[in-house]
TrEMBL record:
The active site is at residues 14, 86. One of its GO terms (biological process) is regulation of phosphorelay signal transduction system. This is Histidine phosphatase family protein. InterPro entries: His_Pase_superF_clade-1, His_PPase_superfam, PGM_Phosphatase.
């Protein structure tokens, strides 16, 4: 008989901020949700309700945009998890990829140096720690992680036992929910990815 958790892991990216709308790298800067971001988070509430979460543990990033998203989506926060903080972008905080590439041709967060910031291996180590805690908590109920775009994409990759760089293939919209679990053999699986309660096709942000 498998000892894999029978409950689900739900990853939610926070709603739109002005910086995410314009593609600015937002790590430690505590940017609030825009009005659109709040609408996106409210629209996520019925998506979450439809999951019929069982005894959920809800952990949020230390940033207010994550906590506000959880609140508007109808979740009761269990605690703040420091390791869910977004990637530390160091000297590139607040810059867009286009601006960074003016000095470093072809730069991406996935495969280049971030001066004064975190390496992808450091972010992956944080993700692995969160997943270990979540897996333990999944013995008692579903676990919801409300966090950010890049850390969430690394979390998704690592939960699936993939290289953290696989996260570059997993773009996530603001205020979207992705559901993960295990099969009867304990193999980690992606059940649903990037569900939103708003018109994602018509959304023009990042």
């Amino acid at each position: 008989m498998s000892n894999a958790p029978q409950h689900r892991l739900v990853y939610i990216r926070h709603g739109e901020t002005q910086w995410s709308r314009t593609g600015r790298h937002t790590g430690s800067t505590d940017v609030p949700l825009t009005e659109t971001g709040e609408e996106q988070a409210r629209a996520l509430a019925p998506v979450i309700a439809a999951l019929r979460l069982q005894s959920p543990t809800v952990w949020v990033s230390p940033r207010m945009r994550a906590a506000r998203t959880a609140e508007l989506a109808g979740l009761t926060v269990t605690g703040v998890e420091p390791e869910l903080a977004e990637w530390d972008y160091g000297d590139y905080e607040g810059l867009t990829s286009v601006e960074i590439r003016q000095d470093v041709a072809g730069w991406t967060v996935w495969d280049a140096v971030i001066p004064g910031g975190e390496s992808i291996d450091a972010v992956a180590a944080r993700a692995d720690d969160v997943i270990a805690k979540a897996r333990a908590a999944m013995a008692d109920g579903d676990v919801v992680l409300v966090a950010h775009g890049h850390i969430g994409r690394v979390l998704a990759a690592r939960f699936l036992d993939a290289d953290p760089r696989f996260g570059r293939h997993l773009p996530v919209l603001p205020a979207s929910a992705s559901i993960f679990g295990y099969d009867h053999d304990g193999v980690p699986q992606l059940h649903q990815f990037g569900r939103t309660g708003y018109d994602a096709v018509g959304y023009g942000g990042r």
